[in-house]
Amino acid sequence: MKHPESPSKPPPMMRRAVAVVCAIALLAALAFLGWFWGAWRRPGMRHYLQGMTLLSHGNSRAAEQEWIDGVEQDPNDYHCYAELGDYYAQLRLYDNAAACYHAACDHRPRDGNLRLRWAEAEQKSGHLDLAATAASQAYRLLPNDAKAAGLYGLIETEAKRPNLAVPALRRAYQLRPTDLLLFHKLISDEMDVLDFRAAEADLAPYLRMHPVDAQACLWMAQIDSHKPLTRANLSEGIKFARRALTGLPTSIPACTTLGELYLNANQPADALAAYQAGQKIDPNSEAILRGLSNCYVRMGKTADLARVSAHFQRVLTRHDRITTLQRMLDADPHDIPHALELARLVNEDGRYALARDYYARLAHAAPNDPRVRRALTTFYSQFDSANPAGALQGSALAPISKNKSAPLSIPNPTP
Amino acid sequence: MKHSQPRRHRAQSPGRSEAIYRSLTLILAGLLLSTAGCAPRKPANHPRSPAVRRADFVDIALRSGLKFSWTNHSRGPWTNIESFGCGCAFVDYDNDGWMDILLVGRPRCALFHNNHNGTFTDVTARAGITQEGAWTGVAVGDYDNDGYEDIYVSGFHCSMLLHNDGHGGFKDVTRRAGLNETQWGTSCAWIDADNDGRLDLLVGHYVITGPGYPKFCPSPTGVLLGCRPEVYPPQFPRLYHNNGNGTFSNVTIQSGLGMAHGKALAIQTGDFDNDGKTDFYIANDGVAGDMFHNLGGGRFENVSFQQGTAFDARGLAQAGMGVDFADYDHDGTLDMVVTAFQNETFSLYQQRAGLYSLTSTAAGLASTTGYLGFGVKFFDYDNDSWPDLVFANGHVYNNVRQVYPNVGFRQPLLLFHNDHGYFHRVVDAGPAFQKKIVGRGIAVGDVMNDGNQELLVVDYDGRPMLIRNRRPGHNHWLGVKLVGARSNRDGYGARVTVRWPGGKSFADCSAAGSYLSSMDPRLHFGLAGAIKVTAVEVRWPSGHVQTLHPRGVDRYITIRES
Q: Does B357 reach chain A within 8 Å, measured CB to CB?
């Protein structure tokens, strides 16, 4: 029997369902269009787009004004806040940028990238606690983003909370294993929290690939110096420390680590050589002087011991006085006699760049004071025989003052 | 559990008597269970359990006849010299086997003789201790090995070495001994630095002050306070070698002590690396602490940075005030505690694998942050064999409330019970621990010879406190007095290990530690419930090791070096 082929029609139920779906899709599209139109027509969006157009034509001031107008007219729209944040960040007005990003984040709490930018701005404006909060939120929102993890780790490192920084930095390094900055910060923090085992586990494969990375060698040597004093550990540590010193010939930690390992290996003569090398770099390093003393004690060189001890006590007294004067000047920055004494002591300590900094500030504060003029003359006369600029730049040990660098001829940079 | 098996078996054939038996058993089991629930918990294995031993410490100083006071202070803000405080000492100066008391004061010290009945008689004048000065610290030791304890007292630009004549009197031999000090002496300690059998003297010094240096410094709110130590240049500790003829030579530089950081406030001796030679730690005020490792032959190297004891948990130099050593975690190595300024948690350094790590918070001492600690001592007040901790606290600024309204000048003593390596603060430690004092020196000793150790505390704005525990518990103890022959007569530097069934502990013989004070030199071992000791091993500073098997506990034994 032959069945006639009839065109198969969908059952009525199915037809109804398709119609409903189509209607819903249509409604959704209409709703989206409505929302989009609404958003497009919002004053914030209008100002935002207008500002972007102005910016593309190079008129940044007008663009800034547009976004400010947008914020004023439509305070619930985040676009203008975010754009203002970017704009101020480019101008290095980080306080303003942070405030704008903060407001933008309030309106867009799930936007990890925005929080990341907020964290960066807070970090750069020196508000580390706020930066850490924003960065940790960004890290939570973007758990697989190396930048978020890394930024959070770096901020916690900067805030001297290495225990919080380590997990974030480790995650960042996992996500971006080629980033050496992250790796170095990670190891540095692991060393700070005395997690030598983790540091060694991270360093070992790295050192196999980069056997001449001096900083990594130094860390490995320091880890070895904290291990039980077996012959194998000590010789391994000495090997790494020597390699570190080759790569970092002016590093005091490299000298002291090598010296300490030699002392533990009962080789005071070799330790003495390491410490003496360090003394050439910084004759006023307390660590070097302690090491020298330990060598002389072991070698029974009483005269040398007396000399080093006397110098050590002078250095300690000077360092004490420097700390006191720094505190006094923090309380009263216009105290010229104490500022002069501080500059003189820092100069005596061999930290010429810092001394120059202090003298420069003195010249700023009291340019006509004869005591200051005399002190400046004396200070610069010590470099007369050599090139003063070279002497100042060559002082590798000279720490740079944090935020008070004000050379005589250069005015303070203002944004 | 043992009862359940027969009960189930019997339940298969229940009879009348069986039913009664069953119900009785059930009632009994219930009673047993409920009693077990109510029973006092034994020291828990879990280190963080809230089990806290109560104690009942009372001050018996006045009743005992300790009439002395440190109340002669100026009315205005105290200078550093005024607020520095004094120490105290337990010393058996007449060799009668009972601890007498020396209180360091200004302008005079006071010596009290133990009448063997819990009372004391002031014998200062009879003993000839009439020298006047701004005395601070004290160290007790038989430097000439004549069998009688001599006394060294440090002071502000003064010092005195008092030689015991053996007839209850002391002779000032400072000048003859070459110990005339013109610096600001602080804590001091007798130590046989070169193991030659004669005690050498280690004296800490504080800072240079006087004309040309400020007396007061303004606080952030403008109130004048005593200045912080940073304002003054440091003075450095000195080691005096005992020449054996009643004189001493300054060997500070030759011995390697020239590498100390200065501003010393407290000293404790002990063999922290178990090499048989006495090392020591100096707690410094506001600068890195100094741990000196004895290399032998009177040579020391400063290993505080390598060992991890230079700084506190923040990685900063702390205001180290008091120090003590003990094996608080029973791991066979000496650990260390250092008291510090307000808002600096007192540092507990635990020794692991030869290095020290800070465990203050993990070991339960986080609550010390609110106190300014001076004297500190490990002592086993309940004889459970775990050394407990006592801190004497008190601020240095008598007008501190004008600047920090929530901070008290007078602060209570703190007692921490050691629960298997974790310290619980004993909140209810008795009236003596509720009184607020200006605590400075603290010494531990057994004035009644009953194994219940007393605390001698300096209330620097009041009277001395002699604190006795009225509830010592029923644990057993053993006291060990050492008499050296080849080693120094006091046995300072000897290590005594006591073993008993199920436990052992050790201690190094030293009268130093705490703040400016000197302890009962007899070693005290809590034995918990043990009623016998299996062995007492003494490793003398001379290197000789002596093992004894004493009978009985709850008594003092004297071990003479053979």
A: yes
